Amino acid sequence: MKTIRCALMGVNAAVVGLLVAVFYDTVWLSGILSAKDFILGLVAFGLLSLWKIPPWVVVMVTALGSAVLAAV
Question: What global pTM score does this model have?
Fold first, then answer.
């Protein structure tokens, strides 16, 4: 039983590593291009994780924020 638990911990670590690599490649390199983008991403993360705002609301707020930042 301990062998299976250790194997699952290794698989879990590998999956986390893959998720971080995908996040870095798809979001960070192509989406975060300036300090404004970074702040908008932090706001979206805060809305999702700290205030538990529904994801569809966060998408709408982020789209609106992106449009405002593009106009400035």
Answer: 0.69
> What is the residue extent of each domain of the chain?
1-31, 33-72
Q: In angstroms, rounded to a whole number, what is the distance separating the alpha carbons of residues 72 and 64? A: 13
Q: Does 28 score more than 90 pLDDT?
A: no
Distance between CA atoms of 10 and 59, rounded to whole angstroms? 34
Q: End-to-end alpha-carbon separation of the chain, Å?
A: 59
List pLDDT tens digits, range 46-69.
Answer: 999 999 999 999 999 999 999 999
As a whole number of angstroms, the distance between CA 64 and CA 57 comes to 11
